[in-house]
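User: Thanks for the earlier help. One more: Lrp/AsnC family transcriptional regulator. Can you show the sequence and predicted structure together?

Assistant: Of course, both are below.
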Amino acid sequence: MDYLDQQILMKLKENARQSASDISKEIHLSVSTVIDRIRKMESSGVIESYTVITDEKKTGNDVTALMEISLEHPRYNELFIENIKKNPNIISCYYLTGEFDYLLKIACQSSEHLEQIHHWIKDQGGVRQTRTHYVLRTEKNIYSPLPEAKE
């Protein structure tokens, strides 16, 4: 990946719906070159997918929480992950080092809804301990940083 690919990625991260023509004008490349570079980044896996970032509150999910999960034994990992992937309110799951095994990001309608999710998680096989943090405000929300630009 070179500097031009990084510039294209930066433009796509700002707005993935902008046209190759608009990107080409901003970074001074031909439209066909921009399209070709985007396709190469898609086929190589640099670009995994395109998505929409929503305002959770405007979609009815007024509560965002981060929940740390500790399992009794690693043999529970596979089933735990399988079940977590099925829950639409769990929007991120990270496998961790340290005291807890997983960190979940949960978006839900209310504290009562969070309590239901919490009970559901506690009922999963092998869950030993949880710790929940309410998110008061989101200050930054990006999916992945760009690599440092090199010319």
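User: Great, one quick takeaway?

Assistant: Residues 3-44 form a domain with the Arc Repressor Mutant, subunit A fold (CATH 1.10.10.10).
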